[in-house]
C-alpha cells in the first residue's frame, strides 16, 4: 500500500466524500438543471465530433485505434463513434477524443484553462457499449461526474505545479471516475484508479503546442485512453494511489464543495472553431464590423490588445488546420473578410484565401497587462480599427461570448450543433441525434435508443471490420 501524504485523516475524509459522489450518488439526486446542462454539453460536443470525423486527424486516430487498441473481450470492447469498427473501450475513447480535440469548437472551463467534454463524451460513448440498459438520466449523471472530477483536478493541478499542462493531464481523472462508476469499483479501487490516471496522465506542455501547433492539440485523446485504462488496471488489482491532486492537504479546499457547487453549469460554449484565447478579439472585431457596416475595403489597420497567452498565438498565415485554430490574427482577418469564422475557413481552400492573407498583414496583436491580470478567470481583449475615411473605432473591453457572463441559449447551442452535424450526417440523422440527446433527461429514457444513431459511419462511408 502506498503511504498516504501528510494529513492522512483529512485525506480519508476527502476521498470518502469523493467516492460517495462518484460511486454511489444516484442520478435522482442530481439537480434537474444540472442534468439538463449535461445534455446540452453532450449535444455541443458531439456536434464537434461529427464535424471533425472527415478531418485528417480524426481519420488517423481511428486507424491507429484499429492497429494499436484492438478489441478484447466483449465487456471491454466498443464501437468507434460514427465509424462502427470495434476496438477496445479505451481505444474507442482515444479515437473520438483525439478526433474532437482537433476541431477546436468544443466546450471549455475557464478556471482549468482547458476543456472537459472532449474526453468525457467519448468516454461515455465507449462505456455505454457494455451497458445496454443504461438509463438516460444515469448517462447524464456520468457526464456530470466526469466534468466535476476533471474540473477540480485541473484546478488543483494548475494551483500546485509551475508548468501549464494540457487538458489530458486532468481529464484522465474525470474519465477514470466515470469508468469506475460503470464497472462498479469499490472505494479502494477507485482511489487506485485516480492514482494511476494522475501518474500516467499526459502532462504535456501546452505552450509548446501553442508555439508549434500540431495534431497533438490539448492531449485529451491520451487523457481518455489513460483514464479508461486506469479503471481497468485498478479493477485487476493494480496499485497506484495516492493521486496528489485529490489527496494533498493543500488542494483539499478544491474538493470541499463537490456535489453542492456544480461546475457542470459553468462551462462555456464556443461560437467559433478557434482557440478560446482568440474569441474576445474576434467578438470585438465582429461587433465593430456589424455596428459600422465595415468590410475589408474600409479597414486600414486593426490593433488588438489582449492577455499574454492570446498574444502568443500563431501570427502568420496558417498552412494547416492546427495552426489556423491557434491563430488570433488569422481569425480576426477572417471575420473582417467573411463576417464569420467557420470550419470552411480553417481547412481546405480557407488556408489559401488571398483576401484573408492580405487583411492579416493589417492586423497587429499586443499584450495588455490589464487583460493579462484577468486571465484565466476571463478572456478579455479590446480592438481598435482604423478606417479609410480616417475614423478610429474602438470596441472597448470585450469578454468572449458563450460563458456564464454571456451564455448561449439552448436554441443557440442547437443551431450550432445542426450547422456542424447536418453537412456530415444529413438533416434527418442529425436531428434525430439532437432529439435523442436532449431526451435523455426524461425518466425512463434509454441511452441505447440514441446509440443506434451514434456508431454507424455517415451514409456512403464504409470501413473494413
Class of secondary structure makeup: alpha+beta
Total domain count: 2
For the record, the CATH architecture of the largest domain stands as Orthogonal Bundle
Q: What's the level 1 CATH class of the largest domain?
A: Mainly Alpha
InterPro entries: MmgE/PrpD_sf, MmgE/PrpD_sf_1, MmgE/PrpD_sf_2, MmgE_PrpD, MmgE_PrpD_C, MmgE_PrpD_N
Family: Belongs to the PrpD family.
Protein name: MmgE/PrpD family protein
Describe the structure.
The chain has 465 residues and is α+β, with helices and mostly antiparallel strands. The chain has 2 domains: 8-266, 2-methylcitrate dehydratase PrpD, CATH 1.10.4100; 276-399, 2-methylcitrate dehydratase PrpD (60s Ribosomal Protein L30, Chain: A, 2-Layer Sandwich), CATH 3.30.1330. 51% of the residues lie in helices and 7% in strands. The strands form 2 sheets. Strands 3, 4, 5, 6 and 7 form a 5-stranded mixed β-sheet that branches. Strands 1-2 form a two-stranded antiparallel ribbon. A hairpin with a 6-residue loop joins strand 1 (77-79) and strand 2 (86-88). Helix 6 (136-160) runs antiparallel to helix 7 and helix 15 packs across helix 16. The longest helix is centred in the N-terminal third of the chain and has 25 residues, at 136-160. It is globular. The chain starts with 7 loop residues before the first helix and ends in an 11-residue tail after the last helix.
Amino acid at each position: 500500500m502506498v503511504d498516504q501524504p501528510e494529513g492522512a485523516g483529512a485525506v480519508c475524509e476527502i476521498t470518502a466524500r469523493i467516492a460517495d459522489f462518484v460511486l454511489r450518488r444516484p442520478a435522482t439526486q442530481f439537480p434537474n438543471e444540472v442534468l439538463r446542462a449535461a445534455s446540452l454539453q453532450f449535444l455541443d460536443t458531439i456536434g464537434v465530433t461529427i464535424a471533425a470525423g472527415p478531418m485528417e486527424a480524426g481519420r488517423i486516430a481511428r486507424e491507429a485505434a484499429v492497429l494499436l487498441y484492438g478489441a478484447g473481450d466483449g465487456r471491454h470492447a466498443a464501437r468507434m463513434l460514427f465509424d462502427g469498427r470495434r476496438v477496445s473501450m479505451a481505444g474507442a475513447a482515444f479515437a473520438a477524443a483525439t478526433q474532437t480535440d482537433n476541431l477546436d469548437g468544443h466546450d471549455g472551463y475557464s478556471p482549468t484553462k482547458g476543456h472537459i467534454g472532449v474526453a468525457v463524451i467519448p468516454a461515455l460513448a465507449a462505456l455505454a457499449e457494455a451497458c445496454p440498459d443504461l438509463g438516460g438520466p444515469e448517462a447524464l449523471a456520468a457526464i456530470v461526474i466526469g466534468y466535476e472530477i476533471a474540473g477540480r483536478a485541473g484546478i488543483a493541478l494548475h494551483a500546485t505545479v509551475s508548468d501549464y499542462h494540457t487538458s489530458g493531464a486532468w481529464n484522465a481523472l474525470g474519465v477514470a471516475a466515470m469508468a469506475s462508476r460503470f464497472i462498479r469499483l469499490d472505494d479502494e479501487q477507485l482511489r487506485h484508479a485516480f492514482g494511476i490516471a494522475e501518474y500516467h496522465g499526459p502532462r504535456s506542455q501546452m505552450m509548446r503546442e501553442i508555439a508549434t501547433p500540431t495534431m497533438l492539440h490539448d492531449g485529451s485523446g491520451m487523457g481518455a485512453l489513460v483514464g479508461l485504462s486506469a479503471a481497468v488496471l485498478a479493477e485487476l488489482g493494480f496499485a497506484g494511489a495516492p493521486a496528489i491532486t485529490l489527496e494533498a492537504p493543500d488542494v483539499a479546499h478544491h474538493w470541499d464543495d463537490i456535489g453542492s457547487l456544480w461546475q457542470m453549469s459553468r462551462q462555456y460554449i464556443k461560437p467559433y472553431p478557434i482557440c478560446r484565447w482568440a474569441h474576445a478579439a474576434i467578438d470585438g472585431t465582429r461587433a465593430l464590423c456589424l455596428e459600422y457596416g465595415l468590410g475589408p475595403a474600409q479597414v486600414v489597420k486593426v490593433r488588438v490588445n489582449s492577455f499574454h497567452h492570446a498574444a502568443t498565438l500563431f501570427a502568420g498565415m496558417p498552412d494547416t488546420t492546427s495552426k489556423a485554430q491557434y491563430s488570433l490574427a488569422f481569425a480576426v482577418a477572417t471575420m473582417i473578410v467573411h463576417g464569420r469564422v467557420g470550419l470552411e475557413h480553417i481547412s481546405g481552400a480557407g488556408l489559401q484565401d488571398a483576401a484573408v492573407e492580405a487583411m492579416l498583414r493589417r492586423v497587429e496583436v499586443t499584450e495588455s497587462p490589464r487583460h493579462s491580470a484577468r486571465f484565466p478567470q476571463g478572456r478579455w481583449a479590446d480592438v481598435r480599427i482604423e478606417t479609410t475615411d480616417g475614423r478610429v473605432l474602438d470596441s472597448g473591453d470585450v469578454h468572449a461570448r458563450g460563458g456564464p457572463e454571456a451564455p448561449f441559449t439552448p436554441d443557440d447551442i442547437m443551431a450550432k450543433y445542426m450547422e456542424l452535424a447536418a453537412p456530415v450526417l444529413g438533416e434527418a440523422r442529425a436531428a434525430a441525434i439532437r432529439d435523442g440527446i436532449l431526451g435523455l433527461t426524461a425518466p425512463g429514457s434509454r441511452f441505447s435508443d440514441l446509440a443506434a444513431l451514434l456508431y454507424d459511419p455517415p451514409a456512403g462511408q464504409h470501413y473494413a471490420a
